[in-house]
Amino acid sequence: MSDAHHEHDSIIRTPKQLIVAVAGFFLVIVIGIILLVVFATSDRLTGAGTKSQEAEAVAERIQPLAEQGFTLVDANAPKVLQAGSAVYAAVCAACHDTGAAGAPKTGDTGAWTARLGQGYDTLYKHAIEGIRAMPAKGGNPDLDNLEVARAVVFMTNKSGASFKEPVAPAPAAAPAVAATDAAGTVVPSAAGAVTVQPTAAAPAPAVAQASGQNVYNAACVACHGAGIAGAPKLGDKAAWTPRIAQGNSTLYEHAIKGFQGKAGIMPPKGGASVPDADVKAAVDFMVAAAK
Description:
By secondary structure, the chain is an all-alpha fold.
């Protein structure tokens, strides 16, 4: 009986023990709330007592989005030459993938056999200077000769050749520049040679925007000069009249995006890599010549 009676006895037997228990309970709750607030707000508050107003922090927050995560490109850095596959896709594929204007299709060994027999030097010369319906450098005069050579090797090797990939020439050594003293006098080098301090290079003249005729001569004349692939010849009013009747917006769209009809095929931008505005200027030039 005594054991059963003690099992139901409370550990708090006096008023003092009750006060201590209640006080301890509230103390635990207060400490828990404080710890929770500290955890929730740690390193997240900005303002007084933080570094949020320092110059470095402010500069980081107002940094333009365009500069975040990008590497600035030095405009004076040497040009990075494209691989043959990239040049082919951008310039050559318009005709050599479709066979437009009589271009031999890439991979068609039967069409390439006779051409490959002429040798690499002849193929390279034709690609640089142009031949028949093939415009110089595929219609993109901005290409470096080495880029054209790489494209020739890429295309011909897929069509039965085994030409070696051309190697970029080693960069030329920079000329020695003599030091000058405070008065601007040339100081002899250690070897006794005296060189003249080069003068500042004159700024390059501004490049004028290409006119419609220049774009025509570079990208359009291959087809529109001879009427190849159904292209209306420059100045042929009879051939141009129904096309002009469609309106400039339609002519622009066909010239920029390409067009394939019953009479022939027009590759996008004539197979050249030029801005849309230059293509429109070339269209205006040809339309004016037909009026």
